[in-house]
Design a protein that fits this description.
By secondary structure, the protein is an alpha/beta fold. Among the domains are: 109 residues, Rossmann fold (3-Layer(aba) Sandwich); 164 residues, 2-Layer Sandwich (Heat Shock Protein 90). It is 54% helix and 17% strand. It has ten helices and twelve strands. A five-stranded parallel sheet has the order 2-1-3-4-5, with helices on both faces. Strands 7-9-10-12-11 form a five-stranded mixed sheet. Helix 4 links the parallel strand 4 and strand 5. Bound molecules: adenosine-5'-triphosphate and magnesium ion. Adenosine-5'-triphosphate binds next to helix 8 and helix 10. The site of adenosine-5'-triphosphate has 22 residues, from helix 8 and helix 10.
């Protein structure tokens, strides 16, 4: 047995197709003697049926047969995906070049002319079986390599996604840090300026009041004095806010339940909300863990957020609407092994555009008419939450919704 042939228990199977009984028997004997399994077929249609039942490793195909000739049989075999890969060797008494060419054209791998020597037939069969095996091994290797490449490719893709995520995280935290530093320095500055302004403003207000008192009630200048008082009142309110922003008041922190703080904030704002026909939905469980805070300040944050939500809702729905809803809900979550409470103020109002989002935490930034906003609400809130070692952040879709999340660490969490 040559190297090319398999051992007995997994011998190669060869389909021999020939209409002459003597040829068929001769070939069968030669091949069987050399350890091949032989399947004979005496015409084309029988050969095709035999292949359909079980594919042989190689086909020896006689060219001249009555009815369907060898070329025709080969054409059928090459059309079918199941039999396309089986090597076909033609055997024929017609030995001229054009016949041989025809054999290769229809898909044969070799051409043996009768009369043949047994050694030649065996050598050619052995070579083609070997070639086929090499081919299969090569394909297997290509498949393996492709698989390995695609695994590596997937890993690379995952790594790119992960790197992008980390890059974004880094940018976000840098932005938060910048925001914090900016607010800190502005806070210091604002505190100083507010103190300087406080006294003169009081003076102006008092003098305006004195002028008003000294004038006859029907004097038209009274109107101007009133204007001065209204405007200085406004300045005084800003100064008060600025002082709060600079966090001059320094009440001690105490343990508190977020549900109590939400409740007391709502008691202050509920009337206004009802008046604006805003539907209120709250879900702040009583049994959430305690937090440590300055109640008054956290209440101020919630009031600021709810007032903003109310303004956004009124802007989108001037009158009653079933979606004119303000939601407040709290839940506990774990971050880096520590417990936090997130309180969310949500409205489906005007939403926040990226341009506003970039600037809304800046002091004095407001998109509201002068009488409605000083633009200090969010910057003060941001500072307060930061001072409580928490985080105030926003999610919003312009025209759709806004969610402000106030994350505070749980006491002993
Ligand atoms: N829930 C919200 N929906 C839409 N826009 C909002 C919302 N909250 C804040 N904004 C935007 O952010 C800006 C800044 O808010 P901030 O609370 O700091 O100031 P303000 O509400 O304008 O004035 P103030 O709170 O001092 O009265 C607002 O003018 C508004 O454009
Ligand atoms: Mg506000």
């Amino acid at each position: 047995m040559t190297d090319y042939e398999k051992s007995e228990n997994n011998a190669h199977e060869i389909l021999v197709v020939d209409d002459t009984r003597i040829s068929l028997r001769l070939l069968t004997r030669i091949l069987t003697n050399h350890g091949y399994l032989v399947r004979p077929a005496s015409d084309g249609p029988l050969a095709l049926k035999s292949v359909a039942v079980k594919t042989p490793d190689l086909i020896l195909l006689d060219v001249k047969m009555p009815g369907m000739d060898g070329y025709e049989v080969c054409r059928h075999l090459k059309e079918d995906a199941h039999s396309r890969e089986i090597p076909v060797i033609f055997i024929s008494g017609l030995g001229d070049t054009s016949e041989k060419l025809k054999g290769f054209t229809v898909g044969g791998v070799d051409y043996i002319t009768k009369p043949f020597a047994a050694e030649e037939v065996l050598a050619r069969i052995g070579m083609h079986l070997h070639l086929r095996e090499l081919n299969e091994r090569l394909e297997e290797k290509v498949r393996e390599r492709t698989e390995r490449l695609s695994t590596a490719n997937n890993l690379l893709k995952k790594e790119i996604v992960e790197r992008k995520r980390m890059e974004k995280e880094r940018r976000d935290s840098e932005a938060r840090l910048r925001q914090h530093q900016k607010l800190e320095s502005i806070g210091l500055l604002a505190g100083g300026v507010a103190h300087e302004i406080n006294n003169p403003i009081n003076g102006i207000m008092n003098y305006a009041q004195l002028i008003k008192d000294r004038l006859n009630p029907d004097n038209s200048l009274i109107e101007f004095a009133d204007e001065i008082i209204i405007e200085t009142d406004r300045v005084a309110a800003i100064v008060r806010n600025l002082l709060a922003f600079a966090r001059y008041e320094n009440n001690a922190q105490s343990s508190a339940r977020i549900s109590n703080i939400v409740e007391s904030s709502l008691s202050l704002i509920q009337t206004v909300i009802r008046h604006d026909q805003i539907l209120l939905e709250t879900d702040v469980p009583d049994d959430l863990p305690w937090i440590r805070c300055r109640n008054q300040q956290i209440r101020q944050v919630l009031m600021n957020l709810m007032t903003n939500a109310r303004d956004a809702l009124n802007e989108k729905y001037p009158k009653y609407h079933e979606n004119k809803k303000l939601k407040i809900f709290s839940h506990i979550f774990v971050k880096q092994g520590n417990k936090w409470i997130r309180t969310t103020v949500e409205d489906h109002g005007s939403g926040i555009t990226p341009e506003v989002r970039d600037r809304m935490f800046d002091p004095f930034f407001s998109t509201k008419p002068r009488e409605n906003g000083t633009g200090l609400g969010l910057s003060i809130s941001y500072g307060i939450v930061k001072e409580h070692h928490g985080l105030l952040h926003v999610e919003s879709e312009p025209g759709q919704y806004t969610q402000f999340h106030m994350d505070l660490p749980v006491l002993d969490g």
